[in-house]
Amino acid sequence: MSTICAVSTPLAQGGISVIRISGEDAVNIAAAVFSPQSCESVQSMAGYSCAYGKITDPQGKTVDDGVLTVFRAPRSYTGEDVCEISCHGGIYVTKKVLRLCLAAGAKLADRGEFTKRAFMNGKLSLTQAEAVMDTISAQGELALNSANLARQGKLFEQIKRLTDRLVEILGELAAWVDYPEEDLPQVETQTLKNSLLDAISVLDKILKNYDRGLIFKSGIDTCIAGKPNVGKSALMNMLLGFERSIVTDIAGTTRDVIQESAQLGSVMLKLSDTAGIHETNDTVEQMGVELAKKRLDSASLIMAVFDSSQALDEQDRQLLEYISKLDKHKLLILNKSDLQAQANKAELEKYGEVLEISAKNGEGLDGIQHAVEEMFGAGTYDADSDIFANERQKTCVDTARVYLKNALDSLESGQTLDAVTVMIDYAADALLELTGEKATEAVVDNVFAKFCVGK
After folding, report:
1. Residue 391: other Cβ atoms inside 10 A
2. Is the pLDDT score of 251 beyond 50?
3. Can you give the CATH number for the domain in which 250 is found?
């Protein structure tokens, strides 16, 4: 297998860049471009050791100074010899050092090839490998915690226990069916039924967490709506912690949909600050209103904003009627609590939970955070066991569940144990594909194609 290299840090100007080299010739390639000043030679460096030195071209000219870290097989990320060169983080110098490594005999790594080699060399299960990218892309505490659990092997262990139990059941069924003349204990129908129900329960929990995980991984699609000048842009700025939307006393300032992401406690909000929903003859404003309605229809969470210093009017009530027909999570927000209240809070409470805030003064943010976390179940998340599966893993779980349900139905309808055995066998295969123990080469390639180069 060839020795590969890639830039493992973002290719952008920064303090340092890291060029990673992995393969049986990694040490010799590093030695060709790096001259250590704190030890005799690169070849003499032990695993888990570093050396300061010069990065030089084939003519001996210094390109940069830096640090070389050596990891010896099999105690490395990939299971192979790995060398990492840390140089200054300029884009040109980083590319220069990478070209030197390529000229010395390394091959440019494909997407995810370092982690793929870790999987192929038995350093990681497929679920652990996928969790590496989940860790990198995590945008909130819950998503990060889930990724760390999976990277520590918790998901693999959970599925492995379930698969081992199914294989054990298959062994018992096969022995009883294939060797009827032997004095083997008969498979108890109720015991088998209970085992299938337990297995389905485990898969159901994974599927439930998948739905919740989509929200916590990618962020809650949130639409801020309301008539003009109620403080939608001020609310967005308060949630973001900086001024993103223009805030004025002039109604209709926001005409387009402004989108940003905001961290709110343990969850991420994908915010859309929309144009005020109202009747208008202005063509541009009309387009903004239509965009706002489309965002309401597609959002997972609606924050409907009302001006507490004014009585609710027909436009407010039209918005309430519109969102009441949508099957969405909703927060009704009475803004401008720093002014004398005129709005009828009781009228709003008929449509959902009402929070009073002053976006201008930054008051009420804690209440919004608590309400959103409760609404989406962040408070019920078990940090020690809840793991969010990805789409590939969900597909495997869905397949396994269908087969186990078919096995249960076959058992309850009195069909032969042969039919039950076939269904359980298919379910076990789906779970083995999930963990990577029986995944095809195409499945493995597809997993790592989603990785960034250098990881």
Report:
1. 8
2. no
3. 3.40.50.300
Pairwise pLDDT comparison (282 vs 247), residue with the higher score: 282
Q: Rounded CA gap, 122 and 136, in Å?
A: 21
Query: How many domains are there within the chain?
Result: 3
Query: Are 182 and 280 in a shared domain?
Result: no
pTM for the predicted model, two decimal places? 0.74
